Each structure stands twice: as C-alpha cells, then as structure tokens.
Amino acid sequence: MLRLPRFKYLRPQTAREAARMAADLGPRAMFVAGGTDLFPKLKRRQFEIETLIGLDFLPREVRNGSTDCVVGAGVTLAAVSRDEHLNQKFAGYAEAAGLVSSPPLRNAGTVGGNLCVDTRCNYYDMTYEWRKAAGFCLKKDGDICLVAPSSPRCWAVSSSDTAPMAIALDGVVMLTSPDGERELPVSALYRDDGIDYLAKQPSEVVTALRLSADRETKTAYVKLRRRGSIDFPIAGAAVALKLDGDMVIGCRIVLSAVASHPLEATAAEEFLKNQPINAETIRETADIAAKPAKPLDNADLSHFWRKRMVRVVVEQALQAATTRTGGSKVKLLGRQAD
Ligand SMILES: Cc1cc2nc3c(=O)[nH]c(=O)nc-3n(C[C@H](O)[C@H](O)[C@H](O)COP(=O)(O)OP(=O)(O)OC[C@H]3O[C@@H](n4cnc5c(N)ncnc54)[C@H](O)[C@@H]3O)c2cc1C
Ligand code: SF4
Hints:
Layout (H helix, E strand, L loop, with lengths): L7 E3 L4 H11 L3 E4 L5 H6 L7 E4 L7 E3 L3 E5 L4 H6 L1 H6 L1 H8 L4 H6 L2 H5 L12 H7 L27 H7 L3 E6 L2 E6 L19 E8 L4 E8 L10 E10 L2 E10 L6 E2 L1 H7 L6 H12 L12 H21 L7 E2 L2 E2 L2
Parallel strand pairs: 1-3, 2-3
Antiparallel strand pairs: 4-5, 5-8, 6-7, 6-8, 9-10, 10-11, 11-12, 13-14
Helix pairs in contact: 10-11, 11-12
The chain binds flavin-adenine dinucleotide (FAD) and iron/sulfur cluster.
The site of flavin-adenine dinucleotide has 34 residues, from strand 2, helix 2, helix 6, helix 7 and strand 8.
C-alpha cells in the first residue's frame, strides 16, 4: 500500500492569507483543494513538499447573472454537473464537469483544482519505484524525456475536462496573490509546457471562474476515454456555437488531451464562421480541427488511433451543440435536429 509522506497542514482563512503563505514557503509548499489529484501524486512521490496549504475557505456558491455566471473555485464538480442554471445556460460546462473521473472524486474535486490539475504522462504517473526502474524523466528527477528523447521539453498532456470548455465559453479566472487580485482569461492560464504548465504565479490562488455566453450560444463537450468512468480524457472537444438560423456567427472549438495545454482549433473556427451548419460543413470543420492535434505515445491507447479520433469527437460535439439549438432544422448525418 502506498502511504502519504509526512507534511505540515496549514489552514488559512482567506485567499490573501493562503497566497502569502505560499509566497513565503516557495516550492516546498502546495495548495490542496479536494486533494483528488494531489494526494495520489504525493503517495507516488511525484511532488516533494513539506507543507500543504488547505483551500477549504474557497467559495462554494454559483452566482447566476443573465449572460454570465460566477462559479466559486471551491464548488465541487458534482455540484456543477447538477446545477440547474449551469445545465441550462452553460450545458457543455456542466457536461464536462459531470464527465470527470467518477462520482466519489467529483464529490470532492473542485472547479479550481480541475483548472489547475497537473499534466499527465504514462512515464510520470507511476510509483516512485516504477519511475526509478524505468529511469527518471525531465518532469521529475531525470534529465531526458522518455517519450521524445531528443526533445528538450516535456510533452505531458493537459487532461482537465473543464478547462477546454471554460476557454470556449470565454471563461475568466479570478486570482488572488499576496499583492492583490486580478482577472485572467482561462485561455491565458496555460503554457505549452508539460512541466511549467500554468501561466499564473505559484502563489496565486484561483478563487472563482466567470463564464459568459449570450442566449444563442449552445455548447457541448464530448470526451473519449477507455472506460465510461474514472478514466482521464484521451481526446476531447469543447464546442461553443452561436447560430443565426442555420448560419454560424460564432464558433469556438477547444481540444482536450492532445497537447500540454488545451488546444484551440483556430483554423477550424475561422472555417466554420459565416457558413451554414450542415453535415458537410461539420465534417470539413472536424477534419481541419484535428490537424493541429499531435498526440504522443504517453497516454492510454495508441496515439495514432487517438489522432484519428480527434476529428470524431469534434464532429460529435458540433452535432450535439447544433442539436441543442432549439428550433433550427439542420440536417445532420442522417439525423434531423430538433
Ligand atoms: C483515478 C482518477 C481519475 C481522474 N479522472 C479525471 C478526469 O477524467 N478528468 C479530469 O479532469 N481530472 C481527473 N482526475 C483528476 C482530479 O480528480 C480532478 O482534476 C479534480 O477536479 C481535481 O480537483 P481537486 O480539487 O481535487 O484538486 P487537488 O487535487 O486538490 O489539486 C490539484 C492541483 O491544483 C492545485 N489547486 C487546487 N485548487 C487550486 C486553487 N483554487 N488555486 C490554485 N491552485 C489550486 C493544487 O495545488 C494541485 O496542484 C482524476 C484523478 C484520479 C485520481
Ligand atoms: S513527456 Fe517526457 S518529460 Fe514529460 S513526463 Fe512524459 S516522459 Fe517525462
């Protein structure tokens, strides 16, 4: 049985206090929210820390406006997936939260923790003994990448289900540092780097996520994984579509689990904008969206197959979002949308 290492647990009362503690303690301390990702990793000695800073003071409420919604970083994924307003206005986001892992982990895992969750790799998400036997890698204790040995960087995979959907919905995170508060678009929260994957300061606490969409925006998230539960995504597509009749007037497509950051398929978005939505344009958009996805051999199942499946998840997500646009009579791959 793997055991947690010994650590000191601090319990600040506010985000500012937590940020100050993190700034003072530096890399030997980490924040913990639900602990669903952090605790297994501590057991596998993927992080070496002396102190955990608890974030149980974080807001646990969803505040609804007419076109936007502020979700406290402490809200659990289970609560998001059940929230009536989120399911109505931001269906893709509630859907993505409801597809994370399994019910017990969604009861503990939080909105903030899911946005900040570590990148993944088959050579890294292993016990200390396994990694030692295989030879450590760049991300922890080693000096080469075992997936791409000639590469100077780590290609661990961004595996958050909700981050792509938050980007597609123009999400903004509220951050608290020792010096104050600021807002940052979720699209600017990530770096294309498997190790240094967050663009915020390590001492900054995510306190809330604001999503916005007008009434016409319809969203969907489609996730591919080996089993129907527990598993991380091995490909995923978050789509936000704005339609005027059958014409696409706004389109965001963000891919999960195919790069070290949520990957926006900008060429596909440009292609679909100002086009009618139908089976043919959906198929062409999905082909274009899959091009920038370059999965490597460091996640579940074959990376060649995962690459081929990217166009499938994009196609399905576009279909699902279109089907949600009540009233539009769009012919989709042999189905008639309501
Ligand atoms: C078996 C298993 C399956 C899983 N499947 C999935 C899956 O399918 N999809 C998926 O997306 N995730 C999955 N996860 C990962 C994890 O359960 C979720 O990502 C969860 O949402 C993490 O939230 P948490 O609150 O538990 O974060 P924690 O584990 O507490 O923290 C995760 C990271 O975020 C940091 N952090 C947490 N909150 C904040 C904050 N407010 N501000 C700044 N930093 C913060 C922590 O320091 C840590 O680095 C899985 C985990 C396991 C063990
Ligand atoms: S991509 Fe390479 S460096 Fe990064 S975790 Fe995997 S093996 Fe290690």
